[in-house]
Amino acid sequence: MLTIRETKFGKTRIVPLHPSTTLALRRYASMRDDHPVRRISKYVFAGDLGKALIHANPHFSFILWTRQGD
Fold first, then answer.
1. Angle 49-50-51 (CA atoms, 0-180°, nearest 5)?
2. Which residues does 49 contact at the CB level (< 8 Å), separation at least 6?
3. Whole-angstrom distance between the N-terminal and C-terminal Cα of the chain?
């Protein structure tokens, strides 16, 4: 399960994840944590300065990134 906090209108959402998505997120987090600024960011998908990315960029990047192993 993925908990998404502070969404639009301050809501929290709980999203069930497929095991392959969980694996992809763990791989991404490991790579992200190699970058010191991203590692300490409060955002899962953070830019080089540790700030949140706009919606379209992480969405598109995640789709491409998760398909690299195919």
1. 95
2. 37
3. 24
**41 residue type, one letter:** S
What does pTM read for this prediction? 0.57
Q: Are the beta carbons of 24 and 65 closer than 8 angstroms?
A: yes
47-64: buried (b, 16+ CB within 10 Å) or exposed (e) per residue? Answer: beeeeeeeeeebeeebee
Q: Are 2 and 18 in contact (CB under 8 A)?
A: no
* β-bridge pairing 13-15 and 2-4: antiparallel
Please give the average pLDDT of every successive group of 10 residues along the chain, which has 70 residues: 84 92 87 81 79 71 71
Rounded-to-integer distance, Cα 21 and Cα 19, Å: 5
